[in-house]
Amino acid sequence: MRIYTRTGDEGKTSVVGGRVDKDDLRVEAYGTTDEVNAFVGEAIARMDTKKHADMIRDLTEIQHELFDAGGDLAQAGKKRQYRVTAAMVSRLEEWIDRYDAETPEIQRFILPGGNEVSAALHVCRVLTRRAERRVVSLTKAQETNDEVRRYLNRLSDFFFVLARVANVRDNVGDVEYKRGGQVFR
């Protein structure tokens, strides 16, 4: 099987249910979700397999779920059962709570940074926010799985907490935004 097909040379791509322009809102939504997935892989590659075993396990599951989210977002017209569910969103909330228990109370806004793993997870966080914005635009214009939007919203929170945990596990402090006052009490 050849990797290249030449079918996209004219600026169109296939989605479930037909062909659309490559800059279609639907393609933007699942394409940005795919970007998140790639950066999750990079974050995993930076992790210590012993110290971060639980994080690697959970992030690997998230990679599969992001692929599922992309499949849900790629549906235009012809429908199949969606894969991203409310249960996945609830499970992310449980993970957030579990990991957040490892971190100190937040007093100020946190800047991206700390150690390499934390910085990589912050990139995942901001890209997930962008993916969420793309899905919001898509849902205004076309039908899609609303659970993907909720999942991405929770996922960005998960990456934030995981970035803080990565710093804690390396005894590195969060980089606090110092120009503002204490905002969390």
Automatic annotation (TrEMBL):
Catalyzed reactions per annotation: 2 cob(II)yrinate a,c diamide + reduced [electron-transfer flavoprotein] + 2 ATP = 2 adenosylcob(III)yrinate a,c-diamide + 2 triphosphate + oxidized [electron-transfer flavoprotein] + 3 H(+); 2 cob(II)alamin + reduced [electron-transfer flavoprotein] + 2 ATP = 2 adenosylcob(III)alamin + 2 triphosphate + oxidized [electron-transfer flavoprotein] + 3 H(+)
Gene Ontology BP term (one): cobalamin biosynthetic process
InterPro entries reported in the protein's UniProt record: CblAdoTrfase-like (IPR016030), CblAdoTrfase-like_sf (IPR036451), PduO-typ (IPR029499)
Superkingdom: Bacteria
Name of the top EC class for this enzyme: transferase
Residue ranges annotated for the Cobalamin adenosyltransferase-like domain, each copy included: 3-166
Pathway connected to this protein: Cofactor biosynthesis; adenosylcobalamin biosynthesis; adenosylcobalamin from cob(II)yrinate a,c-diamide: step 2/7
UniProt keyword list: ATP-binding, Cobalamin biosynthesis, Nucleotide-binding, Transferase
Enzyme nomenclature, EC number: 2.5.1.17
MF (Gene Ontology): ATP binding; corrinoid adenosyltransferase activity
Subunit structure: Homotrimer.
Family under the similarity heading: Belongs to the Cob(I)alamin adenosyltransferase family.
Name of this chain's protein: Corrinoid adenosyltransferase
Species: Marinithermofilum abyssi
Originating gene: yvqK
